[in-house]
Each structure stands twice: as C-alpha cells, then as structure tokens.
Specification:
The chain folds into two domains: 130 residues, no CATH class; 80 residues, no CATH class. The chain is 54% helix and 3% strand. The strands form two sheets. The protein has a two-stranded antiparallel ribbon with strand order 1-2. Helix 2 packs antiparallel against helix 7.
Length: 290
C-alpha cells in the first residue's frame, strides 16, 4: 500500500499559520473551554485522536494523548512525520492542521481572558500548569504581531498621583495572601495598578519568557488605551525591566532566538531592546541589526 510521505519542514510550516507561542497542553485547553464555552478537548478527541486510532491503531491514539499531555498540541501533531500513514490520509492530515489553526487562533483571541480570569477553576488549572513546568515553544521563525510606534518614542514619564484613584481590576487573591490584605497599598494611578497586576501575574502564573513578556505587557496596556510607546507606557515597561533584571520572576533562561538568522543569543534587557523587540515582532541579534 502506498504510504503518505509527510516532509517534516513542510508539515511544521502548515502548523505555523497562526503564531501561537503558548503550548496548548490539556490544562490550557480546559481553561480555554471555561472561558469560551467551546469544548475544544472533545474536538481534539473526535477530530484528531480518534481518527488517528482508526487509521493506524489504538496505540497511536494513546501515543498522541501522551505527546499532547507532555509537549502540547503543536508538538504532538508535529510528530506525525514519524508515522507511516496510508496515502489516503493526506486530506485528513490537512484537516488536522486546520483544526490546530482554529484552536490556536481561538486561544490567542482569548489569552488575556484566560490569564486574567478570576474563576477559581481557571486559576487552579494555571497553577497546575505552572507547577508542572510551562515554557513557550520555539516555533521556527515565530514572529509576533509587530507593535508600531506612531513617532519618536518619548522618555519614560510616570503619571501624576491621583488621590481619588479607584482600582479598576480586582486584587489577586495570591497577592493578598503574600502581603496581607490590610498591607495592600492603594495604587496612586492606573499605571501603578497595572504594574502591580503584571508583576503579580508574572510572579504567580509564571514568567512567559523574553520572547513574550513585552508583547503580553503591550497587549494589556492596549486594553486600557495606553500606548506602550507613550511616556506612561515606557514608564511601565522600564519598571518591569528593572524587576526582570532584579530577578523578581526567578532565574529564568535569558537566551532568545533571532528572528532573522535564528541564532540563539542573550539580548541586553533594557528599554531600547524591549522597544526594538516590540517593533520587530521579536528579538533580533546585534549582527542582524547592524
């Protein structure tokens, strides 16, 4: 019987149409279900896992479930290049890539709702994920949507304190437990509250890595109509950079991968490099910048 030859690089390229650097483990997919109401875990079973079992045998379906749990959906599908598919499976493999696109796009659309949710069920799923170990996957050529600066970037400028400022976000329970509810400071303005919120997120939910941290920050700021390249936005970014360099979020891996040459390098973590990463859609090494 003719076999379907899945060329590895081309196969992975079909999975890169949606830039989703978050590993779609079952725990993350269950959190997505709670936010959206869409039963993505059942879709993975009925559209990917069960058909694979019918094509190649139950042992392959079980292997896919293990790969999904250990590495995430992108990586689990990526391993298809090692399987001996019948030629008749070509259309189904294309369908699997389309399913990944759907779910990855859905997650990216709702990522902020997942990580900022107050639902205790979602918080417990994220805590389990953090304790198990969670890091962004290195999709070859992964590029985040670039953030454009409208003009010259001003220096960081903290906004004035507002004695009548009222919080707009709920105080995280894990932060209350850490410092004590009575010891919680009242933020002086929105910028101070967002710094508190981001710091707590990266401390308690896990640091997303240099590839993602400034894009997650810019996304949150945009939700409050704060341009990351404004004086206030630069002040918030600079504060987070100081916290990163003081290792608030642990001794994390500072290696990154250049968007252009794909070489691994250690970028300088300062405001200029963070701004460049946002504008480029990721980190670019010194040799490619010159």
């Amino acid at each position: 019987m003719d076999k379907l030859d899945i060329e590895y690089v081309a196969h992975l390229q079909r999975l890169q149409r949606v830039p989703c650097p978050y590993r779609l483990y079952p725990l993350r997919l269950k959190a997505l279900q709670l936010v959206t109401g869409r039963d993505v875990m059942s879709e993975v079973e009925t559209r990917i896992v069960n058909p694979l079992g019918k094509l190649l045998g139950v042992q392959y379906a079980e292997q896919l479930r293990r790969d999904l749990d250990t590495f995430g959906l992108y990586e689990a599908i990526g391993y298809f290049h090692t399987y001996d598919f019948p030629a008749s499976a070509a259309a189904w493999v294309d369908e699997v890539c389309a399913v990944y696109d759907e779910i990855a796009a859905l997650y990216m659309d709702h990522h902020r709702r997942v990580v900022d949710s107050d639902d205790p069920r979602i918080r417990s799923l994220l805590e389990l994920l953090r304790n198990r170990g969670d890091s962004p996957h290195n999709m070859p050529g992964l590029r985040m949507p670039a953030v454009e600066a409208a003009g010259a970037i001003p220096p960081p400028e903290p906004p004035p304190a507002d004695p009548d400022y009222t919080r707009v976000l709920p105080v995280r329970e894990d932060l209350k437990k850490l410092v004590g509810e009575e010891a919680m400071d009242q933020p002086a303005n929105l910028a101070a509250e967002l710094i508190e919120h981001l710091t707590a997120r990266f401390m308690f939910d896990g640091f997303p890595g240099l590839q993602l941290v400034f894009f997650e920050t810019a996304e949150l700021l945009g939700g409050f109509d704060i341009d990351p390249f404004s004086g206030t936005g630069q002040y918030i970014l600079r504060t987070l950079i100081e916290e990163i360099n003081e290792e608030y979020f642990g001794d994390f891996d500072r290696w990154s991968r250049c968007l252009r040459c794909e070489k691994a390098f250690k970028p300088e973590i300062d405001l200029a490099s963070a701004n460049a990463a946002l504008q480029n859609g990721g980190w670019v090494c010194a040799e490619c910048t010159a």
